[in-house]
Amino acid sequence: MNVIVQVATTPQALPSGITAGALRFQLVDAQGTVTATQDVNEASATFSNVADGTYVATVQRLDANGAGLGGAISQSITVVTPAPATFDAPTSITVTVQ
After folding, report:
1. CA distances from 4 to 50, 68, 87 (A)
2. Is residue 53 in some structural domain?
3. What is the chain written as a DSSP string?
4. Domain count, the chain
5. What is the pLDDT of residues 52-96, one digit of tens each?
């Protein structure tokens, strides 16, 4: 399953001598393990082949050296793969001749 995480940003004052870097997007599973990380210069990240389960998606701005700027924001998500489409297949036949 693909998970697309998008974030809205608001301009903030940078501390003196600091240069803003990428946005760090992470998926953290129910056990607290980071399962995927992307550092991108865009307001969204796509994670592919995410297994079913409960996750927390987090996003934090980094400085040019990779250190966090401000706090991370997070959102809980649940990934559930839809059941495959089904059909009624013939499994037996009864014929009566009278």
Report:
1. 11, 22, 31
2. yes
3. --EEEE------PPPTT--EEEEEEEEEETTS-EEEEEEESSSEEEE-SPPSEEEEEEEEEEETTS-EEEEEEEEEEEE-PPPPP-------------
4. 1
5. 999 999 999 999 999 999 899 999 999 999 888 888 888 888 787
> Which pLDDT tens digit goes with each residue over 5-42?
999 999 989 989 999 999 999 999 999 999 999 999 99
**Domain with 38 in it: what CATH number?**
2.60.40.10
23: in domain: yes
**pTM summary value:** 0.82
Contacts of 81 (CB under 8 A, 6+ apart): 1, 52
Indicate whether 59 belongs to any domain: yes
Contact 62, 69 (CB under 8 A): yes
